[in-house]
Amino acid sequence: MPVFELNIYAIPPWLSVLSGLLIAFLSFIRGRGAEESTLFGIVCLLWTALPGSYVVHYLPVNREVMLSSDRWMTSLYAFLPFFNILLFHRILRLRRRLLEVAFFVMSVLSSVLAQLPCFYTGLLEYSWGVIASGGPCFGLFGLYSASGTVYAIVLVALHLKQKTERLRRLKIQYILLALITGALLNLVNVLPLYGIDVYPLGNLTFIAMSIMAYGILKHRLMEVESLFSLTVMWIVTSLLIGIPNGIGLILFREYLAHLNTTEIILLGMAWFYANFVFVRRIQPMIDRLFHRHAYNLQKAESRLVNQILLLRSTSMMRQEFLSAIERAIGLAWADLLIREKGSNRFHGIQQAEVEVNDDVHDWFLGADHLCDRATVEIDPYYALIRSDLLDLFEKTKASSMVPLMQNGVLQGLLVFGGKANGKVLHRDEIAFIEHVKAAGAIALSNASLYQDLNELKDHLEGLVADRTAKLQRRTDQMTFELRLASVVQKSILPPAVQEPPGLRLAARMIPMMEVSGDFYYARPLSDRRYGVAIIDVSGHGMPAALLTSMIKTEIDRQFVDGRSTAEICSALGEELAPALAETGLYFTAFVGIIDRDSRRLHYTGCGHIPPVIVRSSKDLHILESRGVVLGSALIGVYQSQSTELHPGDRLFLFTDGLMDASDESGEAFGEERLYALMQSGARKPADEQLEEILVSVSGYRSNGSRSDDMTLMIVDVE
């Protein structure tokens, strides 16, 4: 029975299979159903078929299983040329249906041939492992696969010459590099199938897949030479670490073999520390060797930040900012568009005026980074704002732009047209721009603020004096009008209540301002009937006070003996509807008629806080009523209700200003406190309890301020 053995030659196919599955998964997830990403995911899965068959060769299975696995994996792999053609046609935006159908038919035939003995005739065994032996049909498949690869390489190369967009050229360059790399690796695969003892480099497919994945899935690509530079730097760093360690292991291997566990642990810790110190020492030197431009950019950034933050003129700031960036990066041209106050228009040196619409401005609030025109054209990230951004690129004739945001406002827009040498921006140069833009935004904001302060300084004193004089005149006029209105209101509203036999009354109205929107009403209707009412107009000040005068006049007219309280309320609503409609105000009311003969209180509530009767037994009786407020749009049907009155009962009519008074924490005085005061002082004279309640409410309020008018009327039944 075959036995599983760990073999170093099994690592490359495993890496290719795992890499292919991972890249396919990422492509499906990131693509979200996009055709290009879906096709690339399928291509990655098919690419893993060939190294997948080699993985089986290193598992403990018999030769029949290996050969069967090779046939089935190749049947899947046979569709790779077809899906490659589909993918490249979509990337290059080509429509060649006839050719695609031809490749599909050839893939189906190749997949069927892979199951025949003429495709794989058996297995060949080498020092590095086992591989299928290619037959005549395999040769035909090889020609078909090679033709597909050659077609793809030629197609991509031709389009590379035609394309001028930087980002699309980069994308095609990576695809071309991946195709050539994959073709060379798979070419070596053919040799061992025909008896030549060479390790099948097609197992390194993960290299070509990774290159193509980077080109297709990434939207901001690194230049190929930059990627090569990073690779060389990594190799140099690895060699500088690996060579001394390897020499040390060779020289001291005999000594290490005689060490015990404790000594090995201690030596390992010392060895690790030595490597750590060594890497820290050589890494800066390697960085300077490979990243000299990055160090120069850091110096330029430091100088620029120190200089521009001290400049107070927008023109000087713009000149210094642009010249420093142009020198550091080698830009062909650059311009700083500065926002015009109070508008979305921006002015620069080369651009007289450019307008930025609100959508772009709002987008920059959440995307405060460099925007490259080539990236905007193809990256789905810019889909919602693409047309507006491209329009702005067209107006400025720029290839890149950087927003200068400060305090949620687009202060300026740095635009430039590329490097003088024609190369694209390196990632270090992009990082340099991203770093200095913050300082540029602050400097621009400071310069603009300094300029504004200078302009305001000349006019501030005169403006303040003029506004102060106008405000004082207006305040004096308002004070005079309020005092006059207060005098007029007091002359209209009842100065004191008239007490009929058998009743004792006490009432007080405390306005929030000079005039009040509340008032109480009490007068005899006949020898045996006595009318009481309390009114609360919405709002405060002069409008509410004027409306109370109108209501008072109308109540005098409607409050006649023989009418029920419901009829009085309905008449009030109908008569005052036009005035209420014009002002938009409304008022609540409680109207009551005390019949001394029957000792009953007939009443109707119009959205007002229910009055309270404290019985002689100190029980609390609340006069609930369901009538709506009196207003132009709220004319309702009102009903009269009644309750019995006993000797010693005390009736309280009040407005919501008493309950709504709040302390420093915002907690309202509330009905519970108010009801408790009513019950506790029910045996005191009416005027004395009225004073006690008003003093308690006023003392509860924070810092003596009032948020509403307060009115309270007490009626004692003897």
Automatic annotation (TrEMBL):
Q: Does the keyword Hydrolase apply?
A: yes
Kindly state which keywords UniProt assigns to this record, in alphabetical order: Hydrolase, Membrane, Transmembrane, Transmembrane helix
Record-linked InterPro entries:
Bact_Sigma-Reg, GAF-like_dom_sf, PPM-type-like_dom_sf, PPM-type_phosphatase-like_dom
Care to name a GO molecular-function term for this sequence? phosphatase activity
Matching entries from SMART domains are given as: PP2C_SIG
- Write one Pfam family the protein is assigned to: SpoIIE
**What parts of the sequence cross the membrane?**
6-26, 38-60, 72-89, 101-123, 138-160, 172-192, 198-217, 229-252, 264-282
Top-rank lineage group of the source organism: Bacteria
The PPM-type phosphatase domain extends over 500-717
Entries under PANTHER family matching the protein = STAGE II SPORULATION PROTEIN E (PTHR43156:SF2), STAGE II SPORULATION PROTEIN E-RELATED (PTHR43156)
Protein name as catalogued: Protein serine/threonine phosphatase
Q: Which organism is it from?
A: Leptonema illini DSM 21528
Q: What is the lineage of its organism?
A: Bacteria, Pseudomonadati, Spirochaetota, Spirochaetia, Leptospirales
